[in-house]
Structure prediction request, 332 residues.
Amino acid sequence: MGECNVVPAPENFELFYAYAAGENPGVTQVIGAMVAAKKPFTPEILSDLRMRCLSGARAARAMDTVGTGMSQTIDQVLVKLEAAARHTEAYSSTLSAASGELSAGQSPADLRKLVEDLIGATRAMESKTKALESELQKSSDQVVELRGALADVRKETMTDPLTAIANRKAFDAAMDAALMAVAKGDNVSLMMCDIDHFKKFNDSWGHQTGDQVLRLVASCLSENVKGRDTAARYGGEEFGVLLRGASITDAARIAEQIRLAVQGRKLVKKSTGTTLGTITISIGIAQFKAGDTAESAIRLADACLYGAKQNGRNMVMSEGDSRMVTLESTAA
Prediction:
């Protein structure tokens, strides 16, 4: 890591440990090729490697564990049910035999013995039934535990490891759901957000401070979207927000709240307590229309974001903004 000028941060140690241990073929191949070619490990490359390889590998291992546990539990339940079926069949045979003997004109002593045998068989069946109930309850508890583990795995695969908000995969899934809602006549708006001068922060203060900036913005997004809304890290320093049931006017109001929330935060270097300045973001907004695709909606919101950047940054721009017309004329 020292020879490659990689910052000795915990997340980078995890990445290079996976490379050194050879436990992740994707990491081994990419890092090995970069080391051999003496290519620089930029913060962006390291972040992309972590997102693509490590979280996926952890999720795969967890899925294997859950799958094995579920398979073992199912096998155990099947064995118990087969045993229960045999016990039930044996008990049924005992009752049938007793029924035949009762109709054969038995003596009082024979009847007493027959009843005692039936009572013994019934008690044995009750005992086996209670044991089965107990074992099935244990299996049920194991299934609940495994389902919880499975939910945790699913959450991890849909969460950005750095910012702890939804990742691109979760955003794409939410986009599909949004398109279905629009087809039913619901209002859905999309915000594309980009951190202003993010590269400058990385170059001036280092990769760890850049990560702090990303977490700060993600926190502001999470605090201002609720319910069915989805705030996600779209890629790099860009974020996407889907607002269900929101008109373009509603979305603009929420976007302004987010912009002000980000602007109001002070970036402080944790190691020294030094204030590094403020962060600002630019936001572009588009409202879904009937017939829109994910690509067309994102393209329009991105165009608005570009307009906000070109008009001075630290602003919200919606589709239909008069400044967009000026921008398009200039571009033409």
